């Protein structure tokens, strides 16, 4: 699943592939916004962790990864 995080005053968004379900990521984002720890922490498929200050989050986009065809295909 693909997660895009827009950060205020940053020219590019953060994009990561997560093995978690969309509901799990949504819960983590909601909890981070409501909690006092002031950071959103997500882990990607390779085990890397992304930590973003909650005050700087502009948006979070959660989308299922699409399997796009590549090469030559017949329909």
UniProtKB/TrEMBL annotation:
The lineage of its organism: Bacteria, Bacillati, Actinomycetota, Actinomycetes, Micromonosporales. This is ATP-binding protein. Keywords: ATP-binding, Nucleotide-binding. InterPro entries: DUF3107. It comes from Spirilliplanes yamanashiensis. It comes from the Bacteria. The keyword ATP-binding applies. GO terms for molecular function: ATP binding.
